[in-house]
Amino acid sequence: MQLLALQRQSGSLVVRTRKGARIVLYVKEGTLALATSLGLRGEFRLGRYLVQDGAITEAQLNEYLEQNPPTSNSKAKTTLIGQGLLEAGVVDADRVRRALVRQASELIYEVVRWNSGRFTFQLGDLSEAAATAELGLPTSAIVMEGFRRVDEWRMIEGSFDFENVLYPDPMAIERMGKQGELTKLEATVLDAIDGERTVREIVADVHASSFDVCKILYQFVNSRLVRIES
């Protein structure tokens, strides 16, 4: 990506894992125009960012998806969700762009985590969607943030197993409540800890990035607000 930026190249950088996951980074003159993915967790879908940003409600998103289900017909013309919501008048262009920027950034964070796979670069024109989005994001700062997150992931993943069940400590939570308020996401994560769900299930149930959820769980465990099954 540094090379593409230095050479001001345009085209698509495709990164694949052996398990079939794929991230495509569309580059225009060295900057990131758009990022898409296939075979990844649902947290990277554009709708999640729009809901989290307050651009639409989850009910509105589900209603749109029910009325516009994805097609398996490769010859059928497909409308990307951002474009579809814009045309339906559900969201405005600024909100869609903000969601696309967050999506692109988090896909780069994700690809930086991968320790094996293959990549190819196709020199040439961008896809229609990338040409329309044309985010123009410099990638150097995003990649550096990705590496910083990799270091945090290593620390987080060493503190618990994803199959561990977490238990809330009512007394510790009560004491914490008297000292200060939780953020909305922290409160959502805490509510999801019920002594039955595993870490993996909590991450799947909370509509946020797995990194943000695991970071909060790490903080809860270390502050003894929750405990890991013995």
Could you describe the 3D structure shown?
This protein is α+β, with helices and mostly antiparallel strands. The chain has 2 domains: 2-156, no CATH class; 160-228. It contains 11 helices and 6 strands. The chain has helices at residues 2-6, 46-52, 58-67, 81-87, 93-113, 128-133, 140-157, 170-179, 184-192, 199-205, 210-222, and strands at 11-16, 22-28, 31-38, 118-123, 166-168, 226-228. The strands form 2 sheets. A 4-stranded antiparallel beta sheet has the order 3-2-1-4. Strands 5-6 form a two-stranded antiparallel ribbon. The chain starts with a helix and ends with a strand.
Write the layout of secondary structure elements.
Layout: H1 2-6, E1 11-16, E2 22-28, E3 31-38, H2 46-52, H3 58-67, H4 81-87, H5 93-113, E4 118-123, H6 128-133, H7 140-157, E5 166-168, H8 170-179, H9 184-192, H10 199-205, H11 210-222, E6 226-228
Antiparallel strand pairs: 1-2, 1-4, 2-3, 5-6
Helix pairs in contact: 2-5, 5-7, 7-11, 9-11, 10-11
